[in-house]
């Protein structure tokens, strides 16, 4: 019998299911009231069936490093990214955005540290000219750190971020955050049950913030070849790494974004401005440094360090990236760096969910949010198939995959029977 008062109740049939950890094979996934009801269970009589034959059902994907807004969250969702982990935003924008996300089904969900700790005129001020930012709060003495941390938590910070950057990978010179301020932020953050994450793109700064006790790196280090000692220290500390190979490719002049912009599964979903942005590159560091990043990634993988997929997608004017699309290229680059496709998929699903304490998502399991992405093909074998997005659900509500510039209204997952294919 049809369940009484079932809201948004449907069963996805015929699809291979990757549950965030393992490939389950072809099994049914039942969704009702925004949650996963059963996996490989009995199919209720009379329920709406959604045919996933030839496709693979994934948990909604994470981008574990962005700088975002409403337009970007809407764009990300069309590419199957249901959660963005913002890594620095203005509270004047993020606070109302969080309210908007809570009331909407056509935006990816978001978490944020609010403002990161950086010196006056430190990174990323040089990249945000023209963004209209208000004056940034900062701290110059250890005794100012508690007030800085409390203010970020009052703004709704889910975690904290410190930025240790002297600018040379960007072809400039910038004031760098003092080590004692990093250590004080870690102490104060941990006292308040907040993780502290660090921007550190060089071997020297990575070692420094690791000694301070940070919980995660928001970038790989790539200024020179890694050392075995640093890799071993990261593994022993249990620190995770968000490599952001996407932005490192841009910084080192790799043509990754340009190739992605020409993919027929990408172009229809992006505006001309975003396609142009994706096609660009910063090219401020030597080309060979990209190889250093891949070598460090492979060493971290061998050491068993948790790797989270993230892109550093930001605003127009941060070339080489685009919200949503770039996460799929990040997965490709992880595989290029030695990951299996299954490992890359875990880096965009269960691993970020676990490391950020988001136990309600990142897996396809009964009781969890029905954040789901259906893609043509089998990305557990061919990672590029993640770009072949057919359907996206956020909290059990299906997104209508309209072309770029059009509206992308959310529609109930029970209304459509045949997969909606994106792109040609």
What does this structure look like?
The structure is a single chain. This protein is of the alpha/beta class and 424 residues long. The protein has 13 helices and 18 strands. The protein has helices at residues 70-78, 91-102, 145-154, 179-191, 203-212, 228-237, 245-251, 256-261, 272-279, 289-302, 325-336, 341-347, 350-355; strands spanning 10-13, 16-18, 23-26, 29-32, 35-39, 48-51, 55-59, 61-66, 81-86, 109-111, 160-163, 196-199, 216-217, 240-241, 372-376, 389-394, 397-399, 410-412. It has a 7-stranded mixed beta sheet, with no helix packed on it. Strands 5-4-1-6 form a 4-stranded mixed beta sheet, with no helix packed on it. The protein has a 4-stranded parallel beta sheet with strand order 11-12-13-14. A hairpin with a 2-residue loop joins β16 (389-394) and β17. α4 (179-191) packs across α5 (203-212), α5 (203-212) packs parallel to α6 and α11 (325-336) crosses α12. The protein is globular. Mean pLDDT is 92; it is low at 1-6 and 405-424. Residues 105-138, 403-424 are annotated as: Disordered. This is Amidohydrolase family protein. Residues 122-132 have a biased composition (Basic and acidic residues).
